[in-house]
Each structure stands twice: as C-alpha cells, then as structure tokens.
Amino acid sequence: MRLLVFAASLLLTTACAHNQVSVTTPTTPPEGPNVAGTSTPAPTSANTIDPVAARVAESDTTARPQWLKARIAAVLSERKRNPITRILKYQYEGKTVYYQSAPCCDQFSQVFDTKGTLICQPDGGITGKGDGKCPDFEKNKTNEKLVWQDPR
Fold first, then answer.
1. What is the mean pLDDT of residues 24-35?
2. Measured between alpha carbons, how far is 4 from 10 in angstroms, rounded to an integer?
3. Based on the structure, what is the number of domains in the chain?
4. Is residue 33 part of a domain?
5. What is residue 30's three-state secondary structure?
6. Concatenated DSSP letters for 66-123?
7. What are the contacts of 95-100 at 24+ separation with CB within 8 A?
8. Which of 64, 63, 85 is CA-nearest to residue 75?
9. What is the predicted pLDDT for the residue at 103?
C-alpha cells in the first residue's frame, strides 16, 4: 500500500514539475497582435472592506429602550468592528424583536425581545446557521426597520 501511495505521489510530482505557470497582474495589458490598448482597469485605493447593504432598511425613529441604549453604548466603547454593528427591528412570530449583527466572522448575531432578553442567535457560528433556536428567522421576519448602525 505504501509503495502505491509513493508511486502516485512521485507521478503527480513529476507531472506537475514540467508545467510552467505564468502570472500577470490585473494592470498588465494583454499581449498579442489583436490588442489595441488596455482594457483592464487600474486598481483603486478606495476602502472596499466595509460591506454595503443590498437594501437600505427603513429607519426607526421611535424611542429606544434603556437596555438597547446600553448595548449601543457598549459597542461604541469598543473599537470599530468590521463589519460595523447594525441593530434592526423586526416582527417575528407576532412580536417585536431586535436583531444585532455579529461582530465578525464565525460569531453569532443576536435576537432580543422588547425587554432585552436574548431569544436566539439566528446566524453565525462555525456552521453559519446560528444556535438553532430560530432556524426560520430569516424566512419569517417582517417589517424591517433600521434602529441603529455604528456611525464610525
């Protein structure tokens, strides 16, 4: 068995060693007789890290509960997150809920009731599916309103 694995490895290494790879940057114009100028745009230095929402939620201008003000103050006391923190208000299962976006990567987003009690974490985590307590949140949430987003 070891001999078979060694032989396959040697064959793969030998076959790949003869291939040459040519790498060009996006700003290098294509080579050839049929090219009349550069069609590749120059790179920009603009910050493209902060995601842009696909749709803009209607802004919620109603008074915020005290627990929500405390959550916002906690976010503002930390360094700016990437992506920025957003808090949205929805109707879910006939109740008003608040969704706070995840700070980054494999972390959970959170859904709270109107008293600030954590209901579930609908997305994020290693699987991206949250904690499993509200698997239908994305499908059944309605009446989206932006409550707050980090202005920094």
1. 58
2. 10
3. 1
4. no
5. coil
6. HHHHHHHHHHHHSPPPSSPPEEEEEEETTEEEEEE--SSTTPPPEEE-TTS-EEE--S
7. 97/141, 98/68, 98/147, 99/141, 100/71
8. 85
9. 87
- For residue 119, the enclosing domain spans 66-149
Q: Is residue 140 part of a domain?
A: yes
In a domain, 55, yes or no: no
Bridge partners of residue 134, in order along the sequence:
none
Q: What is the distance between the alpha carbons of residues 149 and 84, in angstroms, rounded to a whole number?
A: 7
Quick check: is 114 in a domain?
A: yes
At residue 28 the predicted structure's pLDDT band, cuts being 50, 70 and 90, is low
The reply to whether the predicted model has a pTM over 0.70 is: no
Cis peptide bond N-terminal to 83, omega within 30: yes
Q: Is 4 helix (H, G, I), strand (E, B) or coil?
A: helix
**138: which DSSP letter?**
H
